[in-house]
Design goal:
Elements lengths: L2 E5 L6 H9 L6 E5 L5 E5 L7 E5 L6 H16 L5 E6 L18 H10 L5 E5 L14 E4 L2 H7 L9 E4 L5 H10 L4 E4 L1 E4 L5 E4 L8 E10 L3 H10 L3 E13 L5 H6 L5 E5 L11 E4 L2 H12 L8
Parallel strand pairs: 1-4, 4-5, 5-6, 6-7, 8-9, 8-12, 12-13, 13-14, 14-15
Antiparallel strand pairs: 2-3, 10-11
This protein binds ribose-5-phosphate (R5P).
Ribose-5-phosphate binds next to strand 12 and helix 6.
Amino acid sequence: MDPVIVAGSGAGRLGEEIADLLGVIPVDCRLDRFPDGELDVAVEPAIAGTDVYIVQALSPPVNERLIELLLLLDACQRESPGRITAVLPYLAYARKDRRTGRGEAVSLNVVARLLDRHHLDRLVVVDPHIEQMEAVFDVPVTVLSAVPALAAAIEPTPAGESVIVAPDAGAVSLAEAFSAELDEQGISVLMKDRRSGAEVSTAGPALAGDGAPAILVDDIVSTGGTLEAAVAAIRSSWSPGSLSIAVVHPVLAAGAIERVLSLEPAQVVVSDTIAHEDLPEAFDVVETAGILTRTIRSLSGLASDTTA
Ligand code: R5P
């Protein structure tokens, strides 16, 4: 089945880039708004029997993007496509995968139930916050990673010289993935204590190689609080001017860009799973259209295209 691309507003340029690489034209979507703020969504109806891929990053404004995704799913579903895959370069609400206190909602579970209710056939995500996605969703989940592209964009240092820093225990497997890409460099894991949405404190062992360049990695930068606290924790044992920061999803809430730049990193590498028009030049942005397109080709049963 030839793939059909439906791009939500959160997809940014990714939707068009994927469609370009596949050699198809994205399906026309109408994303209007009623005067009271409700969304009014429609898709070009000629999708019966097709293999539909709805591309939508759940980037800020997160709730708007989520509702838009649900409406796109519903609009597509009503036209009897052959199959629907939601391609979510960034899956929001995944950080709340369990209660950490009485009376809390488990957001990831709520989002999973909302999506599952819409008879999805499959989900494609990039570096989700938790690994066990298929334990949460009813449908098969293809998990992709931007780590190889991010690691390739980090300025090389001689093997073994840098230390990869995980700002909390949740980032260990990401740090391991970077280590595997970067000649098995050492990993240092910090301990994070989150006091509020924007405030965290971090402590941890001194870096394995004192004075070594540090590569601080995380899956998400939202307020920049985690990166800031991690840098404060390692400052005494890291060589100034040789800090690289690599983060998959640049949520970058208000004030975060300035907060990250104030850490004076030699390099900041992020992916384009969340679209930004105006990132400062200090941010290197690596593309994910290639891995997403290869996955769509493979799921659609198309021959692989090495240019994608
Ligand atoms: C949380 O565990 C995530 O992996 C990130 O560390 C967190 O979302 C970053 O958020 P912020 O930039 O607001 O500290």
